[in-house]
Structures
1.
Amino acid sequence: MPPALICRINIERRRRGARRLSLLGVTLLGLAGSVSGRAADLSETRQRFVSGDYSNCLALAQEAVKEDPTDEDWQITLSQVLLVTGRYPEAYTAITNALAREPRSLRLRWQAREVFLSNGQTGQAGEMADTILHNAMARPSTYRDSSSLVAIGRAMLVKGEDPKRVLNQIFDAARKLDSTSREVHLAGGELALEKHDFALAAKRFDEALKDLRDDPDLNYGKARAYAPSDDAAMLSAINAALDHNSNHVGCLLLLAEHHIDAEDYPAAARLLDRIGAINPWHPDAWALRAVAAHLTNKAGDEQKARQVALKFWPNNPRVDHLIGLKLSQKYRFAEGAAHQRQALQFDPEYLPAKAQLAQDLLRLGDEAEGWQLAQEVQKDDAYDVEAYNLAGLHDAMKKFVALTNRDFLVRMSGHEAAVYGERALGLLSRARSNLCAKYGLEVKRPTIVEVFPDQKDFAVRTFGMPGNSGYLGVCFGSVITANSPAARVSRAVNWEAVLWHEFCHVVTLQMTHNKMPRWLSEGISVFEETQADPSWGQHMTPRYREMILKEDELTPMSQLSGAFLAPPSEEHLQFAYFESALAVEFLVKQFGADALKAILKDLGEGAEINATIAKHTAPMDQIEKDFAAFVRDRAANLAPALDFEKPVSERESGDESAGGKKTARRRPVRVPPEMWETWAKDRPTNFWVMTRKAAQLVDDKNWIEAKPILQKLIEAYPDQIGSDSAYRMLAEAHRGLGDTNAERQVLASFARRDDEAIDAYGRLMELASESKDWGEVATNADRYLAVNPLAASAQRYLADAAEQLHDAASAIEAYRALLELDPPDPAEVHFRLARLLHRRGDPAARRHVLDALEEAPRHRAALELLLEINRASPQTSLGAPAALSSLTP
């Protein structure tokens, strides 16, 4: 016999006045209880319900209840089908009749709670939870079956019991009693979802689906678990659910949200119409209609949809919470926050609204109230993963320092702020000056920029949860979050380009009041990167060329936002950014920058994107046709002297990254010589043939034969960048041949084109320093620090070059940064910094020269400098090093 289960239930009752209720421990003995057998027709009816055959299920349930009004299972089935079809008043009548006949059933009372809430009877709903717990305490031996345990656990959650205790002690006990019960699995999975514990939810639903593979509700739960992180897994689970219940309202709602996210409002409307045919009053469906109406600037329809959503429960906090949540996901944070406040007016204890309001306020820059709300949520619900993450983030950010000027508040770790904080402020100020003037916008409040050395902290601040490692920065309108160079260990990233990109979002989002499609927002930011620096942004690559010309991956401009949603691969996501930038470039080249600004202005007034593009350019049919031709022409003219047909081996193994900058393999993979030679024999101008042959020659250190092939590649394709660029291999060949001047020329050409080639910048600094070409040293040190400002070697090169070029300000900044990076010769760095500061009359020079002498007491030049400082500013020399006396005149 299984061991006894002892559960002590401590329930905190949350009502106005925060009155606490302590409940005695409930001992549930004998876990071997089982549900009594059901009649075959009940089983068949339940199966009809699960499969979405609601009309026949309703008829069968009504007939069965008429014949036997005391049958609890039939009463619950009837109530459930009435709810799912939107017959809320009928469900109310049916459940109250059932309760009068069967007052002790916990399952029936939990179902009654759902019915009462759907009819806005919150008082009666609360009484049901109280009664469930009262009956459980009064007759613990009666309620030891899994279904009753689920009802008890759910009631405990309503009354404020610790969710983890309920999950581990109640729901898990129910699962041990009956591992095949769908209700047991749903209860545990739904609790994990409610607390944003998506990993646990996915695990629970996956485990349940091993035994209940075709269950639509379990697949729906799985879809919700993967929705925040994996669109493909979400859609797969939705399809699995709809295969067995095409009327599954939850899945249809999730799909409608997906289409709203993709800005495909007609598709969302069709799904909501399908839901309306099943349940004409579903509050979530009408809430989503309100969202779509808001996003398409139909204020009257929005108000009407919200009113219908509240028809049966006028104070339902979920309606405004859902509307606000979806608006915030569309970057309408102010509007979203207003809806969360309304939800909290309906129910001040509705934690989902309070948590989302905290996130909205933090993204709006209203930090004091935002952090306060986040702490309140964490205090009230210690299990909620998002609230827990935010609390941890708040503690971590307390250690940040703030750098400010009139236009920016930049928060960073103290170490990184000392190294490159002023450089970041300068970059942001240049971006603001350039882009605000270009787009005619006055940014009226300082922009908050938060730079995180820990990628997990960035993800929590930005998305509420760890993950999303592919994001470098995010802009909310007045707040920018970004990973610092220390957070990105997988590949080099130009952080200056990232900040420029994100500040461009500040401009366009504020111009449009956050009312712009994602593709246009991202497209303008990538386009403006290339305008600021030709090496920034994205550029045509052989892979992009192939996707455009051979794989027909080009997305129509009118559908470009959908390309960012559930892309088949990371490559396709990067291609969406690239194509969006091409769309902006096309509009500017064909119709001028003023047309783009006019489009943004109209979007800010609520205009629909395709209509406003047509208004200021040409009919969308013509735009689509001309844009496609523009992109295909750009692809076809990528190195037209080269043949880009791929050998099968290359197509199977892949080549460079989509963006041309991510480090893939160092050299193309070797294939059997006979296969390669046969294919390559008649293709002397083939890009892959030439690249492979040159790579093999370089690997073999056959520099002389590699050179002419690489030179031809560069001549034909001068803009090739990335890990396998011909520039890199030709520089290696020149170095192998001892031709330093030629190596330097090749690397200089490469460095002008690739904004993340730190290996090239490093070699150029070395070569230029040897030849005392200090301008070239400074240029490449700047390039290097734009990727990795935490590199001590680059800071030292910059400091040396700036000194030689008499650029004292840059030298001082570099030496100060270098001191933060634990240089091998701190005494020399302190001395050089002291010398520069003294020349400027800065009294900080004394401190640094003393620091130099503390590190190296016999540093003669430092001793002499200290004497010079003393003569310039006479003061007591008490405490000066003893060796100073030997130098005194």
Note: The CA atoms of residues 153 and 350 lie 19 Å apart.
2.
Amino acid sequence: MPKSLPQHILENLNTAVLLVDDDLMLGAMNPAGEMLFETGARQATGQPLAHLLPRNQALLEAMHQALVSGHPFTEHGLRLGVPVNRWITVDCTVTPVSHVHGNSELILEINPIDRLLRLAREESRHDQHAASRAVVRGLAHEIKNPLGGLRGAAQLLERELPSEALKEYTRIIIHEADRLRNLVDRMVGPNTPLRKKPMNIHQVMDHVRSLVLAEVPAGIQLERDYDPSIPEFPADAEQLTQAVLNVTRNAVQALNQEGRIEFRTRIERQFTIGQKRHRLVVRAEIEDSGPGIPEDLREHIFYPMVTNKPDGTGLGLSIAQDIVTQHGGSIECSSRPGRTIFHIYLPLENGHG
């Protein structure tokens, strides 16, 4: 028997649609709802909605009020706790439906917006980062010109000084001028063109792991969880190694002598980076069990000179972002106490997709 047009439309919506009775028991759910809650409609039907929304008491109470008042409501940017310990951000609309025989039902529409929020954050961060990089490059040019003159003058002065004791002062000037020049160069970031050739992301991760193993104390474990099906793709392995190393050393410093770092790789399908959608993307992650990044720093950690470490320069993550961006990828961070993850996304543009 062919499906009716409303049923066909409902089954093909990307929005999760749930029908709930006046006792907040689930009556029906479309395929988008099954995907969202990772359960079958047949299994969930007849169960309390609280089983699907175990950590959303405020929403359940608002739905009770909607049944009593008969007024619909919409919540934008709602953090929704769903089974399997996941939190998602959604736009949620609840619409009461009254029947002639007196009882009422609710139509619950849930539209996940995490992807849209991620793209908006990524675009905003990219624009802000590009603006800050332009300022830094301009500032670097203005600093390096007089710095070169200062260093040259100190060298000329050193040749004229008769005393070795006095020449020590000019050597200090030259040394500090060189140190400032190197700092400015690091602020500007890598400016050499990428030398791309087919490479394996796991070789990069393992090379970084071996470098860090020689530095970390015995109390830090370095673990691996790789997807062996990820193919080679064209990239500059040396620069990607620097990016992953910068992120990993950040994680080591956060652990303070004890904890766990995990290197993980996965494949993302139909993934958008910037304005471009890719069929296949590598997701390389560095996760640590440290205390987490302070909330007031999370939106700014990729900016130059931003750090919460007394002896830090705030350049490592900025340089990592530059390198990943040059590869057409993006880098993101999610953090809470006990779990901080840096996600590096790199498109697979080598014909394997």
Note: The chain has three domains: 5-112, 117-188, 197-347.
3.
Amino acid sequence: MNQPDRHHSGGRGAEPQALVEHGRAGYARQAWREAWQALAAADRQSALDGSDLERLALSAYLLGRDDEYLDALDRAHSAFLATGENLRAVRCALWLGVRLLFRGETGRSTGWLARAQRLLEHEQHDCVERGYLLLPVVNQQMDAGSFDAAYAAATRAAEIGDRFADADLSACARHLQGRVLIELGQVARGVALLDEAMLAVATGQLSPMVSGLTYCSVIDGCQQAHAFRRAREWTDALHAWCASLPDMVAFSGVCLAHRAEIMQLRGAWADAIEEAQRAVERCEQVRNRRAAGAALYQQAEVHRLRGAFAAAEDAYANASRCGLDPQPGLALLRAAQGQGRAAATAINRALCATSGGLRRARLLPAYVEIMLAQNEVDAARGACDELEDVAGQCASDELDAMAAHARGTIALAAGDAQAALVAARRALQGWQQAEAPYMVARVRLLAALACRALGDHDGARLEFDASRTAFEQLGAAANLARVAALENPAASPGSHGLTRRELQVLRLLATGRTNKAIAVELFLSEKTIDRHVSNIFVKLGVQSRAAATASAYEHNLIRAL
């Protein structure tokens, strides 16, 4: 709410000093709303000093009142300069620069960071602020791909933090060292440094601001390293921390976005959709477009896996508007819609624009799948070789499972069912340990096909049954239809009696488009599309669009174009 609560703030007639004392007490208890209400009320009656403006700023930030945070911190900076407290003014300028950088306001951010650096040049003695000003340098070097320089800057910052016994700086610097090492492929060392930084958070050694920033960055680093179980552990801890501070808004959106991703991996798809939507709302409140884009991408992924292609299309588009490249999900959506050429073009574009083994590893499994669908076996094999190299360097169980699954699909396509089964068993173990039921179901489908090719029909039946049951429980409609089609390959795609135009209409209908939208795309009248849809229903023996879509997948008609 915009006006202070009279009960907590002392009301309109309360003395400014009493309000200040009340605000300080709330701040000390981490009662951020109470602190903000009292300090804001006091500030309207009499200007606060620099320290209380800092308290007002942080309280506003944690409540999601971003513009008020920037305004109060700007005023705190001026107040400290007026009283000759230059180093405290430096810190205000630093945090202003960092926050504006996260908001994407690069010009203002650079200005504040330059002002902090200029003020620091007037200081003759060593000070901890020199270490803090190295932190944005680390991020800038990482963005430029200068990882050796970034690691050197992070190491200097950590040394300064240790020398001055500043836990916030030491934790920030060490977790950045870990992020750089992960980028360099030294995942085990990098994750160990992330864990070390998180120990300081878990034991309450860090300020609320730095605790939240460290939580979010460490979880992001774990996910980048494909250390999903570690990411899950720290996300649970972040959720508990946010729950312990019910007033806090600032980091809750990022927490919800991470939880949505983990729920999606663990098969709790309905919960993932709900959590992602809450994440979008919270992230938009604090203008965190990057996190909002990540949450929208998770929504799109669940919609795609469920077969709700129109909803997935919208969510990928919204993620893109937030500045997030919606790959590889969007390319996989195109493949599922039967648009193989578009899928191949999209995944090729994304892979060519991506450098760094771990970043490319996120795209490579989708690349293998799409290339195999296009009968580009050599291209798929080359991508699988690269994925195996990255997995070998990073010692990640999840990457090993991805690589084994890719190798198995390639072996099956090449006619080596025994090698495919061996790879499937290896991938199955990895995904079971990661508690990822969708991936387990996909691997078991691969194992079913390999067993059948080897003449082990009992083994194939068991694997088909396990895969079908898992897809049913998840609500993975397209995968479920694929299981049905693969179990009964005698169902001929040509036996449907549909014309080529009707197949085109069916493909678009299966994406969730309306008749009007199909008419626009095919440059036909809506009346003509109505007639085609009616004919499709008769020929397939169905009475609804949903049933037509299911039949299309079951009989592999989406790929019959």
Note: Residues 289-306 form the longest helix (18 residues).
4.
Amino acid sequence: MKLQIDNLDGHGLRDYTTAIDGSRSPKLMRRLNKPAELQFSLLADGPDFVVPASGARVMLGKTNGQDVFTGYLRQSPLFEYLGWGQRGPVYRYNLVAQSDESALDSKRLPNRSPFIDRGGGSALRQLTEDLLPGTFDTSAMQDVDTLLRYPVDPQKTWSQHAAEIALQTAGSYRAIGGALTFSPVGSTAHAISQTDPDFSPGGLSLQSSDGLLNDVTVVGLTEPQDHVKDYFVGNGLSLTFYLSQNPFNRPGRTLLDEEYGGTALNPARWTAADPASAITVVNGKLQIAGGTGVDGQSTLVFAERIELGGALVLQHGDVAFTGASNGVLGGLYPNTISVAGCLAGFRVSPSGGQSTIQALVSGVVTGTPISTVAGFHYALTTRFYATEIYRRRQIFHSAGHPAGSGFGGNAVAADLRVVLEVHTTDPANAATLIAASTVLYDGLLENVSGFCAYGLVNALNLNCIIPFTRMFQPVDAEVRSALPGQGYRTRLVGSQTEGAECLLLSSAALQFFPENVPALNELIQVQYRGLGRSMARVTDPVSIAAQQNGNDDGVRGLVREVKTPAPRTSADCENAALAILSDAGGAAWSGEYMIWSDFWPDGAADIFPGDAVNVSVASRAAGFQAIVRVVEIEIRDLRAEHSFYKIQFADAAAAPLDFEFQTGTVVLPLSLTSMTVAQVGALFLPDLTSAEITLATSTTVNVDAGVSPVSGGGIEVRWTDFGWGQDNDRNLAGRFSTQAFTLPRLAAVQNYFLRQFDNATPPRYSRYTTALHLKYPL
């Protein structure tokens, strides 16, 4: 082997092989999804010896050119005094180098929006390019599996992010020789077999324990639960209306706050296709001047996809037009960027020397256009409200369900209410700053795709200036109202200076601005999700029955609070429980194998953490596959390249590879529904997301459940949200076999709780309740 070090002093690589202290063998430590570490000691081997400096490049390789380790010294050598020699004091220089990713770890990650619906390898490659563009060869990085949402924390290093991404996608990364690889765990396999003539029985130690589980409870994050609709009526005076439940609210997150500083677009935020050079950054503003005239050629697209779930506000900017324009601003595109492929956006068309702005929905312009005026500003905003918060289930892996075939990951269907608004301001008239916005479109789009691209600009021939673009998640609630004799319209929630009409307060209250006080007898509807802790209990009846013996009921159970991958809903908790049970079907194996490199069965093939080992030792009743966690290499003879390997491995039952657990203080409810592995995904009926009150009198309330009951089933209505089932009628308001029905009204403030059920034995019910809260005067 050869040890070379570049001290970055302009002299390039120096050969330090003869300077290695023969009394201390170099040791290389490789750990799964962590930087590798090389420890070695040097002795001055001549008058030209140069003490390696902190930051020096270290390369250890075989004579055939195969790299064993490449990295950097991350600290100065430790001087160990040995005595006095002919040329003065003599030292042993003890050094520690870390593998190549340490160069990335020394850089600060930029502030960027979360990765959405993106391959793990793609995200890791992007982080690499953000820090050291063009430095690493990333061609061998596979996507492995999908990250639904992954926020980038600048307080963490690149390798910390790489470890988290690997955990969530069942992958492993490696950095060596200036190249990065990212591949599924276990994609390279080795054999440890007692039939191998070079097998070392004395070097193999195995541990087996009882890893059986058949009753697993998983606790996840706070989730959206009840589908709540609160109904109020205005009296011409009241500005505040108190909600019946605390709304589920994702932590307030600004996904994008772009002020267009500097002289160029930030590549971590934007991807530009601009053959006409029409899109530039000038004096802190985005300037669009022209285009190719061809739809979809000159575009500016946000770097990440948008999840069409919950509530989202996209402020495309306070646009000032500098000439007649043709194109689309603020478009959402499920597929390609084109006018016809636009789900929702603002269609700008030339009109003489000025332009018109019109709503573009599902590729078709609709509604009344707005004509622009020279010198005026037009703040374009898209708001959407989806009936589901999350549009795809979290993905969980196990040994039997690796990357690409994990539990979960299925799409969640949802409808989307889209509101396109324009806030017109005249710089010469301050009163226009708080004037109401003009709503160009307010409609419901059914069963839309879960993710889309955000194209801020699709310029056929646009001429305008955009000073900012923002994207943020407000409270996941939709506010609508209807004046007497008129239809419902969406009330804009947010800042008054942005043309909004009301706010949702942290005290679970709806607050209208004085200029927007609800009129007498104006009907108000607030739609949102209640909240609760996600959890699920899943059992394996076959395994339980097999373990029953005398007084032993056969149950082998535990409760786990999963930190990563985070179960966001109870359905996610069910899939996480399936993954845990999949790995816990019997014995849990771990072990260690010590062997000389000369006798390693794969010969020249090196072994790395993340590789699989197939252990087959019949004399120890051992036959299993495990994943290598740590590889320790002690290089005993550099000249002859003899090394001593210590390989530590474990299967998922012994040491979970796809989960990170944490200790919590969650109190499990006494009524937590237990289900079998066969019932996961089939135990609950769809929620009544579209149920609503259609008419309220002083004595009755008409309800439309939104769907027709299944044959032999119906809609169950209760006065309080508990006791669901055919055996409990104490708080029952009624069971109905029709979609529309009438309920008694007993007070000015009345609550109704609905779930649907079928004719199974026992009947299946909706997972979550629909809560209808009415506060109308009698």
Note: The domain at 692-775 is CATH 2.60.40.10 (Immunoglobulin-like).
